[in-house]
Every structure is written in structure tokens, then in C-alpha cells.
Amino acid sequence: MAPVARKLLGMMLVATPATSMAQESGDHAQELAKQLANPVASLISVPFQQNIDFGGGPDDGGVKSTLNIQPVVPVSIGPDWNVIVRTILPVTYQSDISAPGAHEFGLGDTVQSLFFSPRKTGPGGIIWGVGPAILYPTATDRVLGGDKWGLGPTVVLLKQSGKTTYGVLANHIWSVAGNDTRGDISSTFVQPFYSYTTSTAMTYVINTETTYDWKGDNWVVPINVTMAHLTRMGKQPIQIGVGARYYVEKPRGGPDWGVRLVLTLLFPRK
Q1: Which of the four CATH numbers 3.40.50.150, 2.120.10.10, 2.40.160.40, 3.30.1490.20 does domain 2-267 have?
Q2: Is 131 helix (H, G, I), strand (E, B) or coil?
Q3: What are the tens digits of pLDDT across the range 57-114?
């Protein structure tokens, strides 16, 4: 899959009238790419993450395309602390997933996390954040959401050493209000991750985005491998990435594999 991913990434970069940030300042570009690898970095970014999953549905022939709009906004709350506001708003189109021949398009439910994180790196180079995760019932189709409000804790713990970043992000959400005719929610999300950022601002990432549904006793475990390059579109810093994933565990009717395309807009502090 690596040669295909490299070819796709190359085509995306050629199609973009961009100037390599690595040519301008290798150290600055690499540092900015490493900040993107840190979920609680003091950096405003807006990733647009397109996921296309294949398989699943009642006939195992479904296709699901989800565009996650994921703005990340750090808010200073004094000289020593930040609140990192991370929001995920999914826009989904799916075919043959809910039923043979059925098609759905619209917004899914929104998840917003608020990480209270120290500005300074802790002992041993540890970076951490903790706070609430909130589920908003924003789905425009009952098939695309649970019609429930949810709340729970979230935490991130990581370390950056040289060119590597590794750690884990997790949350658990319980439904607290909403439509009484819909099932309650109790869901755990765990994302261990490892990334390596080169001196040319290329970042290679492997992670899982594991979810366990305590009500349905279902696991979803995709293994994701992605590569992304930091560049510019005019004066705008951007990161462009491609990747693939394979589901090692899924409920009945879940997808088999998928691809990922990512475009991230960066707004570093001057």
C-alpha cells in the first residue's frame, strides 16, 4: 500500500500550487509538523479528514464516506494553562449500509473535547491534558446518529522525543438526555498513536481508533497507517496526507477496510 499512498500524495502535492516549507526553513517546518502530532499543542488547526470505508451493511457491499471537520482551538486561561477545544463534526454519505439499496446523507452527531493542559512540558517530557467530552445530537438522519446528549471524561498523555511522538488519547461517553425511544449510550474510545516526523516535514503515523460499545458488546478496531507532508498554499501553511486502514475487529455488518485523505489548515502564532 505504501507505493500507492506515495503516488497519491505526490499527485496531491503536484496539483497544489504550493512551496515546500522544508525548503524555506527545515527546522521550523519540522517543529510545526511535530506540533500537529501533539493533540494538545498550542496551535490553531482545522483538519478536514475524509474517510471512505468499504464493506459492511447487510450484504457486505456497502460504502460509507465520512468527512470529519475537526477544528482545534487552544484558549489561554492564565500563564500556566491552556484549554484545547477539539471538535469533530461528521458529514456522512452511505450506500447499502442501513439496508440494501438504501442511501443516507447528512450530519452525524458531534463530539467536542475540552483538554485542560499545562503550557509547560512535565517531568520526563510528559505532555498531558484532561477534561470533559460532550456528545451533541446534531445528526440530520436517525440512521446517522443516536439522538442523545452525552457526557464523560477524556484524557490524553504523550511524549515527544526527537523526531517521534507517542502516546494515547481516550474518552468515555454516557448518554445523559435525549430521545427516550432510542437506546442509551455507553461508549469507550481509545487511540494509542505513534508518529515519526522527518527533517523534511513528512510525518508517518500508525494508530488505532478503538471503540467499545458497552450496551451492544461490540468492538470496532481499525489499524490506521498514514503519511502527511507539511507545505504551503500561497502563504497558508497546510498539511496534506493519505492513508489506509484495516478493521481487525468489527461488529456484524461493519466495514472491512478503508482509505483516508486529510487536508489540514494551520494558523501558527506569529
Answers
A1: 2.40.160.40
A2: strand
A3: 999 999 999 999 999 999 999 999 999 999 999 999 999 999 999 999 999 999 999 9
